[in-house]
Amino acid sequence: MSNNNVIKVKDLTKMFGDFIAVNAINFEVKKGEIFGFLGANGAGKTTAIKMLIGISHPTSGNATIAGFDIYKNTEDIKKNIGYMSQKFALYDDLTVRENITFFGGIYGLSRKRIKEKSTTLIKELGLEDVSKNLVGSLPLGWKQKIAFSVALLHDPKIVFLDEPTGGVDPITRRQFWEMIYKAAHQGTTIFVTTHYMDEAEYCDRVSIMVNGKIEALNTPKKLKSQFNVESMNDVFLNLARG
């Protein structure tokens, strides 16, 4: 495997009793790549991500994240990744600045560094006028952009984004993807799940899971050519039909 691969997965499997949730999946992700991890609900995406970020123990198989083994180095993995969940990313009862300060502390940043990062982040997002407002009072789109920025606070090598644009309007989605491109351009690897098939077009490469297995993995252009279709949605439908 190339040293340029920051995620390496070999035959990774997760079983719950007799049920195989993730079935011997294999893939690699390069540094600075935007990697789309797609699949319908129940396909095994979330279970796979939980194993990769060190919060669920695999049944079998191996993986390294940022050079760290998922069995032996879970704490090192957590220090080198950022994670943003659609369901929970920020505390609604804290202000914007308090959220940044809190997560900066969780990530082990010094007070000086947290202050510097807070000032920069608030300015870049244009939040000077609302930095003292409770996050719960802000529109969902703003919350998502703040949450992504917070996930990048400690300069992680990899950021895992789980349905980051769910429920936001098309303009905010486009702005969010501009932030993703910027982070990737600066060398951060982006591992993103999405159910918006048009967003799969923005990824460098895409994997598609069906019933716990990766059934397709390539660039969007090559996948569309392989299935002789014009959109990633058509690729997904072809695979779903079997």
From TrEMBL:
Q: Which PANTHER family match?
A: ABC TRANSPORTER G FAMILY MEMBER 20 ISOFORM X1, ATP-BINDING CASSETTE, SUB-FAMILY H, MEMBER 1
* Protein's cellular compartments: Membrane
Keyword Transmembrane helix present in the record's keywords: the answer is yes
Bilayer topology term: Multi-pass membrane protein
Ranked from the top, the taxonomy reads: Bacteria, Pseudomonadati, Bacteroidota, Flavobacteriia, Flavobacteriales
The record's Gene Ontology cellular component field reads:
membrane
Q: What's the name of the protein?
A: ABC transporter ATP-binding protein
Q: Which UniProt keywords apply?
A: ATP-binding, Membrane, Nucleotide-binding, Transmembrane, Transmembrane helix, Transport
For this UniProt entry, the molecular function terms from Gene Ontology, in alphabetical order, are:
ATP binding; ATP hydrolysis activity
- Which species expresses this protein natively? Aureibaculum marinum
| Every ABC transporter domain range | 7-236
InterPro entries in the record: AAA+_ATPase, ABC_transporter-like_ATP-bd, P-loop_NTPase
> Which superkingdom, per the lineage?
Bacteria
